[in-house]
Amino acid sequence: MLLLMAQFGPRVTIPVEDVRREYFSHFDLDTFLRRIQRGTIRLPVTRADKHRRTSRFISMVDLALYLDRQVETGRSDYQQILADAANQSRPNRRLLGVLYRT
User: How far apart (Å, rounded) are the C-alpha atoms in residues 17 and 85?
Assistant: First the structure.
């Protein structure tokens, strides 16, 4: 949370476009919102008002939790790669790909 506050300022919510630009720049805004709507990206989006044209926001707390889950998933994947490599006599291509970004 503190790092997000340093990045976005002391806010309760962050505009969806700002979150997309910082963390999902490989998607355009429509694709990003579709993935959220489908549940592929698990980030709740809120509006200040029920009107359709109201700006959309993501809670700083929800973003922090999402990023923490992603970090834990990455750590878990990495531990599995290391375990797979330890059980094989020859180098694991997946491990080498992660270590050397191939």
Answer: 40
Which residues of the chain have a pLDDT value below 70?
89-102
The per-type count for the chain, helices as H runs and strands as E runs, is: 5, 3
- Give the whole-angstrom CA distance, residue 68 versus residue 15: 20
**CA gap 40, 97 in Å, rounded:** 25
Ordered alpha helix ranges (H), 16-59 = 16-23, 29-38
Buried b (16+ CB within 10 A) or exposed e, 68-85: eeeeeeeeeeeeebeeeb
Report yes or no on whether pTM surpasses 0.85: no
Question: 19: buried, middle or exposed (CB in 10 Å: 19+, 13-18, 0-12)?
Answer: buried
Look at residue 1 in the predicted model and tell me its pLDDT.
Answer: 85
